[in-house]
Every structure is written in structure tokens, then in C-alpha cells.
Amino acid sequence: MTIEVAVVYHSGYGHTAKQAEAVSKGAASVEGSKALLIPVDAVERHWDDLSRADAILFGAPTYMGSLSAPFKTFMDATSTLWFQRSWKDKIAAGFTNSAAQNGDKFSSLMQLATFAAQHGMIWVGLDLVPGNNSSTGGLDDLNRLGSMLGAMAQSNADQSAEFGPIASDLRTAEYLGRRVAEAALRWKGGGLAAPESVLG
Ligand SMILES: Cc1cc2nc3c(=O)[nH]c(=O)nc-3n(C[C@H](O)[C@H](O)[C@H](O)COP(=O)(O)O)c2cc1C
């Protein structure tokens, strides 16, 4: 069996693009899984790819404590698909990157999870226990920013995307991509047809 995983993302200055690439690399590393990176400014050419995808990962930088405006524009552009319930029962997950260690990134992941729920998608969180939270922990730990709703990354405000996000955040992103692809394979392979509608 094969599955397709789409990674839709926005990145103003390239940092979140690196996180998206790591997510995509993780998804593609699973046998039977194909990953496709879609920058939001190219989404018009990719609606069919999104319809076909078994799983979609959403990612954007956190700007002003919420998702960046271009990503929100993409979200609003999916309202027709919302009416058609086109993405119902697809697997979904999310990631975000910002300059501060906290930076209100949770707010962005909440928005992504709500967006996925609006579409009737199945949200996959990060099952990694928080890293860097003990006397033996450190910056190299997976999930060093301690998020379980999705993958977080941090990039210093005064450095280009050449230097950030740091390696452990990219490995965390890769882990999430792999987890989503594995979940999509299990979900698709279960052989259970989605019920037409519980309301008849
Ligand atoms: C308009 C704007 C708003 C921002 N707001 C936040 C914020 O609320 N929290 C934070 O930690 N960083 C904030 N930042 C910093 C970015 O999240 C950070 O530079 C990030 O790495 C940018 O990702 P990108 O290169 O993919 O655009 C903001 C940056 C911009 C341009």
C-alpha cells in the first residue's frame, strides 16, 4: 500500500521552510510514503494534490502570537472544501517556528488543530515526552521546547535561516513527519470504510 503526504507551509524568511523540509524528509522516509512540499504561495497549482493526499501537515511561523497572514489566507481559501467535506478523515498535524523560546507558539498550533477539526480531519500530536526539562537534559534533546500538540522550532531573530532552527528542532520536525506517515499508513490499511454519515 502507498500513501501521499502533503506539507503545506508558509515561511516569510526561510526558517519555517527548513522545518517544513525536515517534516517532509521524515514523511518520505517511511516505506510506501510519498511526500510533497507545497509553499502556500504556490497552492493554487496544488489543490488536486491536497485532495488526493492521505495526510496533510500544516506549518507556519508564529507572527504576532498567531499564524502568519499568508497561511491564514490559505486557510480561508479552503472554505469551499469545508462545505464539500473534502478533507474529512484525512490525517493532519501541524508545526510552527518563532524567535522566542515560547513566543506564543502554542496559540498557532491550537489554531492549526482547530482548523483540522473544522475539516473533520484526524489530528496527530507529537508523542515525544518533553526534552530539556531535567538536570540531564539539554538543547540537543528531541522536543526540547516541550510541545505535544505539534512540532515547535525556534530560530534566533538576528540570524538567517542558514543558522536556525537548531538541529534538534529539525529532528523533532522530521520525527513528526515520520509519525504522520506511519499513522496514515495504519489508517488507510485498516480496511474500515468511512461511514456515509451518522445522521443518515
Ligand atoms: C510580523 C512578525 C511577527 C512576529 N511575531 C512573533 C511572535 O509573536 N513570537 C515570536 O516568538 N516571534 C515572532 N516573530 C519572529 C518570527 O517568528 C521568526 O523570525 C521566525 O523564525 C520567522 O520564520 P520565517 O523565516 O519562516 O518567516 C515575528 C516576526 C514577524 C516578521
Can you give a write-up of this model?
Helices cover 36% and strands 20% of the residues. With 200 residues, the chain is α/β, with parallel strands linked by helices. It has one domain (3-189): Flavodoxin domain (Rossmann fold, 3-Layer(aba) Sandwich), CATH 3.40.50. Strands 1, 2, 3, 4, 5, 6 and 7 form a seven-stranded mixed sheet that branches. β5, α5 and β6 (122-123) form a beta-alpha-beta unit. The longest helix is centred in the last third of the chain and has 23 residues, at 167-189. The radius of gyration is 16 Å and the shape is globular. The two termini are 31 Å apart. The mean pLDDT is 95. Flavin mononucleotide is lined by residues 11-16, 61-65, 97-100, 103-104, 155, 157, 161.
Summarize model confidence as the mean pLDDT.
95
Which homologous superfamily in CATH is the superfamily? Flavodoxin domain
**Rg, please?**
16 Å
* Poorly predicted parts: none
Q: What is the helix tally?
A: 6
Q: What is the third-level CATH name, the topology?
A: Rossmann fold
Instruction: Tell me the overall shape.
Output: globular
Main CATH class: Alpha Beta
Bound molecules: flavin mononucleotide
Structural class: alpha/beta
- Strand and helix order: EHEHEEHHEHEEH
Largest sheet: 7 strands, mixed
Compute the number of structural domains: 1
* CATH architecture assignment name: 3-Layer(aba) Sandwich
Count the E strands: 7
What fraction of the residues are assigned to beta strands by DSSP? 15-25%
